[in-house]
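Final report, closing paragraph on structural work. Over the funding period we assembled a curated collection of sequence-structure pairs, and we close with a single example.
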Amino acid sequence: MLNMLENLVKLARDRKINPIKGSYSNRLLSDKSLSKAKVLEEINELIEAVEKNTNKIHEAADVFYHLLMYLEANEIEIEEVMSELKKREKKWVMTMIIFLQKF
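Its predicted structure, as stored:
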């Protein structure tokens, strides 16, 4: 399951090093304004899909793809994002332990 996310990250990084003419991924990676606009557009489409209960999976996949391209275009590595989430996980666990001790 997470292999697909890894593949998308590899694709983005490969396209940055070895651009392919006409590649949509390359356009997103080289045009930060376009990349930003697409992330915002896709998030809005996901929200609408959830509210209408249609195409939720399709729109969620679009958000993941465009967000990963946006992060890579802006030199934000997914590994750093995951590391930050790991730090927060420790805080969440401690918060939960403290909360449960009250009962």
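The CA atoms of residues 24 and 30 lie 10 Å apart. The mean pLDDT is 92. We thank the funder for supporting this effort.
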